[in-house]
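Re: weekly structure request thread

Next one in the queue (277 aa):
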Amino acid sequence: MSNTRLRGRGAQFNPRNRFEKFSIEDFKTDELDYFMEEAEERKIPTQFYYDNSKTVIAKNDSYDVGFEYSFNPYRGCEHGCIYCYARPSHEYLGFASGTDFESKIMVKKDAAQLLDAEFNKKKYKPDFIMFSGNTDCYQPLEQKLKITREALRVCLKYRNPVSIVTKNSLIERDIDILQEMSELNLISVSLSVTTLDKELARKMEPRTSSPERRLRTIQKLAENNIPVGVNIAPVIPGLNDDEIPSILKEASARGAVFAGHAMLRLPYAVKDLFLQW
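Done, posted below.
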């Protein structure tokens, strides 16, 4: 593992995939490190792959997650939050939990159409669906592909309630749809604010919107009569727990009407990634 920090990424290496018998490890001699120093400074490019999933509603049975059904238009997340509990899910795809999770993104290009088909199945029992849960549905690629936007249109069409959690101000783009859903009592939105410290956020969740930008998004949604709250997740003892009162105060001042939290979870390889970070 190189001593040179990868810019724009939360994880700095790829831990071994727990399902694979073989792994590739990065090792260098001092002499090779000298010649590779400039090469190590370049950013890891993000790669995108089509995901040919046949269904898009996932059922959750974890006792400590507060929702049963979720919709994830992507697998992996370019936001690169170092603490993300979803990282190990990338191992099911043959990738790793580290830099792979934030640089190899699976795209469910037909997600909106698949969601429409799910709603039309006789066995479907209407319930609220969490947008995100294993990824952020407003990660950078969404700006171009608009998969989440089209999926919200489908939910509006069928009057299916939705809850959204995100760290990205891109959600403001969809205020027109969210307003219509709000009028029918079909939507609630949580902006995840982990810290008010811009520098800490940049290191801990490098490709998310800044804390201040997320607070402004709370205000923008509230001004448009969209139920919005703040999610302090994860709470990391010794790092951001002392900020809880300040985050709640700032979010409330911007129009947040509810709040939630979740403690830090370090499943499988996330523990090694977080401790190295």
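Residues 31-276 form a domain with the TIM Barrel fold (CATH 3.20.20). The first strand starts at residue 47 and ends at 50.
Next request, please.
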